[in-house]
Amino acid sequence: MKRIYLDHNATTPVHPEVLEAMLPFMTDQFGNGSSIHTYGREARNAIDDAREQIAVLINAKSPSEIVFTSTGTEADNYAIKGIAELQHSRNSGNHIITSSIEHHAVLHTCQYLEKHGFEVTYLPVDRYGQIQLDDLREAIRDTTILISIMHANNETGIIEPIAEVCKIAQEHRIPVHTDAVQSVGKLPVDVQALGVNMLSLSAHKIYGPKGIGALYLRRGTRLENLLHGGSHERNRRAGSENVPSIVGLGQAAALAKRKRETNLEHLNQLTNKLRKGLHERINYIHENSDPENSLPGTLNMSFEYIEGESLILRLDMEGICVSTGSACTSGSMEPSHVLAALGLPPQLAQGTVRFSLGKDNTEAEIDEVIEKVPKIVEQMRSMSPAYKRL
Ligand SMILES: *Cc1c(COP(=O)(O)O)cnc(C)c1O
Prior knowledge:
By secondary structure, this protein is α/β, with parallel strands linked by helices. The protein has helices at residues 16-22, 38-58, 72-89, 104-114, 133-139, 162-171, 191-194, 232-235, 243-281, 308-317, 337-341, 346-350, 363-382, 385-388, and strands at residues 4-5, 66-69, 95-99, 119-123, 144-148, 176-179, 198-202, 213-217, 285-287, 298-303, 320-321, 352-356. It folds into 2 domains: 4-11 and 259-388, Aspartate Aminotransferase, domain 1 (Alpha-Beta Complex); 16-255, 3-Layer(aba) Sandwich (Aspartate Aminotransferase, domain 2). Helix 6 links the parallel strand 5 and strand 6. It is globular. The model has no long low-confidence stretch (mean pLDDT 95). Residues 71-73, 103, 105, 150, 154, 179, 181-182, 202, 204-205, 213 line the site of pyridoxal-5'-phosphate.
């Protein structure tokens, strides 16, 4: 059966050009970037080229501001724990501000720090997941050492006002970190325009390989290391570099730079078609993605009188791959922390599905989804006593 993949916020397929760029570094060009002979220099040059490609994509002043990490998760951990530890050792404060809808890579890192003497404020959000700047202003203390707010949310697609967050933070000389794993390649992500000190990204959300990410560190940002060992990455991240994956991330960044505008238009068009099609054919649905301020391609919807997990399994049998909440919470019956923060009642949260589209999805695929989803929803509802009583 031909499958329709609508789960790009969980991961994306590797672009053929990315694979092609990576392959030589898994065969002939296997050198260690730290060696000074020809093999080593080949690896070193490839790593430097990738660093440059990322710097260009996010408009960093210098490639030296990019540190490669194993994942987006590691980049988040490095930024947050790195600042926390340094400021703690200097006795300059122990308070961190984040939001209640962060990815677990940020949320669970902050919760870990709370167990080790740090205080964390989790900013509330509105019904689409956006923080309020007044809440941020009120949360700032003399002891605040870091503000970490994601650029765009993986579940609802909401875009946070990071440039405004940075303006407020600058008045108080507080560094800002943003998890831009979802926004890179979809929105213009410009670290100068945003004003952030640190920014996390990950290759596998932008048609690169899994297991490689990067942290942008604005020049002058001081933080402790997460990994200790050799002098790799200018003494900031020890461990022999994952050269093939770094090359893949660089190539994915170059493609993102080249194709972003075209992809954006395509994604917006398909998403609008899907949104309209579902609204026209299904009653009792709620949209959790802000139509005015969301990532292109992300559509989060709650279906009343439906259990989301069952809907997803039924859709999977029809070859349509979507997700409930975030991939990490699927499989557990706990409603996602993001949907809870939006104020969605648990019942409605249970019936929530995230469609996340990618560059290769087609109009024909969306037509098929618009045809199949209402039928399955109707079948499932016809078995719901509460629905039949309506
Ligand atoms: C996927 C994702 C991450 C984690 O990145 P990995 O490379 O999978 O560790 C972090 N934040 C957000 C918003 C994500 O979507």
